[in-house]
Amino acid sequence: MTLEAETRSAEADGTRRRARTVLAVLALFIVINAADKAVLGLTAGPIKDELHLTATEFGTIASSFYLLFSLSAVSVGFLGDRIRPRPLLAVLALVWAAAQLPILLPAAGFGALVATRVMLGAGEGPGYPLANYTAFTWYPEKRRALPSAVVVAGGAGGTVLAAPLVVLVSETLGWRAAFGALGAVGLLWTALWLRLGGSGPYTARLGPADEPSEAEYDAANDSVPFWRIVTTGTWLGATLSTFAVLWTLALGFAWVPLYLEEQAGFSDAEISGIVGLPALSMAVLVLCAGALAHRLLRRGVSARIAQGLLGALLPLLAGVCLLLMTRVPAAALLPLLVVAFSAGNGQTPLTNAAIADICPPARRSAALGLSYALAALSSLIAPYVTGRIIDAAPNEATGYDRAFDLTAWLLIAGAVLSALLIRPDRDARGHGRKTPASTTQAEPSAKE
């Protein structure tokens, strides 16, 4: 082996190690993102009791998180194609911390919760798409489904870790302390990211020489109009299905803990364990789906099958389980609940990778951000609509049944649409890009 070959091999090894480090820090970023979302639902009982809230008022607080969520996601998504992700992600984490800490004040009531949840949502809206975009800068096509799965699995980890810790802090120090603790964690992550974070070799050059160029980057692809990307079947199918998945997640964060307490009769300690079960199931399904799609693509299977049809099976399964959940004996409730609130998100890394694969690098952050922003509108609607359905029903049990049925049919419709529309191979060819199934690339080294 020549000196030049040895140098290239050492650089490639260093890039792979750095990629794994950055991916781990990004997964932790999503862990905190999920914990910030979950804390309201996990402390719902004490909050409702202390502030004397109705179901609709609590639903309003939960929905307020998503008021600026989508606007922020799409705005930062477009910024992500012009500004490096390292400072953007650091600013987002600081916003999270700043939004959580005011709840420590005893005077913070309904208005303060609404205001801080709006602020938190504005900071968290771009979190998933920007974290995925950053992860994709470290991996070539055909290898993006698995890194995206690791990032998305961080959301499951956040719920698993948050549930027992939030309940413990809430019972020991009060529900306000749980919000404050998460604010402190956000500050710690910011310091870690500034020390270890950055973008990788598969990114369009954004200006400074210390940011590496994307080896696969084709300048001609910059001329692809953005409207052509967001009108492809792949982008539309991914966005519509994610709309239903995020509706389900928002319902789970805001209302499932209350449902388990008020309708199923579980204690706070039991709920803290049960809430983590869908998250564990989600982590397994997300990683397995990402790994399976990764393997299928490497074996030459079309992206329509590996990302479209495989992904569609998961929200379909979730929808069927959610329909059954309201129609089976109590003994079967928990297994169905676990699958219903976990399986749909297993599709997310596949749809993220599908969108990334049809986009030129200079359009990728905006395409991911806009898709997530539009899909996240469901998160704004779901908690409030659920509260209205419960208040309007003859009793709470009937209200929960109706809300869960609505969610189930949304998941099934999203699954069908994604199966019909997601065809990354065809849409990538339509933009003049190589398809994921045919592209073979070596990983370039990154300058640090």
TrEMBL record:
It is a multi-pass membrane protein. The chain crosses the membrane at residues 21-40, 60-80, 87-108, 114-133, 145-167, 173-196, 235-259, 271-293, 305-326, 332-355, 367-386, 406-424. Residues 22-426 form the Major facilitator superfamily (MFS) profile domain. SUPFAM superfamilies: MFS general substrate transporter. It is found in: Cell membrane. Keywords: Membrane, Transmembrane, Transmembrane helix. Its main location: membrane. Pfam families: MFS_1 (PF07690). Residues 428-448 are annotated as: Disordered. Gene3D superfamilies: MFS general substrate transporter like domains (1.20.1250.20). Residues 436-448 have a biased composition (Polar residues). It comes from the Bacteria. This is MFS transporter. The lineage of its organism: Bacteria, Bacillati, Actinomycetota, Actinomycetes, Kitasatosporales.
